[in-house]
Amino acid sequence: MDLNTVIRQFIVENFLFGEDGHLSDEMSFLESGIIDSTGILELVSFLEEKFGIAVADEELVPENLDSISNVAAYLTRKIGSAGLPV
Amino acid sequence: MRLCTNCVLPETFPGIRFDDEGRCSFCQKYVGSESQERARERFREKFLKILEETETEGSYRALVAYSGGKDSTYTLMMLKEQFGLKVLAITLDHGFVSPMAVKNIRHVTAALDIDHMTIRPGETALRNVFAGSMSAGIYPMKALERASSICNSCMNLVKSFLLKTAIEMNVPLVVYGWSPGQAPLQSSVFKTNASMIRQMHKAMTQPIRNMVGDRLSGFLLEERHFEKGSEQGEDRFPYLVNPLAFSGYDEQRILEKVRKIGWVDPKDTDSNSTNCLLNSFANQVHLKQYGFHPYAFEIAGLVREGYMTREEGIKKLSTPSDVKVIEYVRKKLGFAAYT
After folding, report:
1. What is the pTM of this model?
2. CA B40 to chain centre
3. Which of A56, A85, B155, B279 would staple B273 via disulfide (CB 3.0–4.6 Å)?
């Protein structure tokens, strides 16, 4: 399973209640209201547990966390493509 | 109505599923109290480290969102008595604060010798926001899991005002008294930054702007607060802290503590608030629109973590609100009968 799919699954299950309707890989979670401030920290918690990483406060920026593509790119930079979950 | 056999979430809660034993999907994902205790300790240590790093002389160490309810009162006590911080408590008077909560605010800030500021935006604009918040679809469903639409509007106004004030006064911490059920542990201590808050702020405040235009913009973050290098710019974004999330939560102990400094239980609020009259009406509207109680998620979290028994949780959610208070709010907001 690729990173985009893993992230999409989490977002759809936890924030869209199973209906992924119009969620594109580039859609901003925050601007579209899919995720609020508390939700971003739930996403961070998921990434830390699932991928064994620590997300530093200075990494809590939209460039890293505000869309499926941004999260996937951030994870790839952080853990490399070898760290993909199965 | 079917409820989770472990917590109190109903079958009408968004996205919920039950296993064969009737446990909800949120309880199935819960990692257990030992793991939570370790995580709480990590966040407490992070908070103590931040206190060392942000030590300043003269100015306030923290702004505290102070509703006058028991949780934010206890939070003020902790900051002052346990951590010795110089704080400024800030209250939004939205026109529906219980008279007893107003007295409590006065008694508590005097007893703790804490500086206090009340903001009171124009009544018409606020009423328009609260009345407008009753329309379905103002906020995404995720935001409505934890609070009613009216509560979301109110909290977003408070959050934006506190961030703006912290930046302008160069205060390093903004503190809330959310219970562990209202705010997840991972949100208990974190550093905000301009780019993230800029994105969040649009979603938080656009509904308010849609309802009253720029009428309340004096209370909200502005573009200048996000600008790099400006006197009130991006490097002044504060830490957000929810001490009750990492300190453990015992409602009875909190009540005993705050009563000792002169806090008195209001008799006119609903079973889930100790400061706000608007809450009874907001809960009724939410329940009717979405089919679940807006406090169900919070209470379920407290039950799951062992801070409250399931029976206590069910009682809190099923205790009827005072009809006279609901009617008072309804009329003040200018609505026809809402049943």
Report:
1. 0.92
2. 19
3. B279
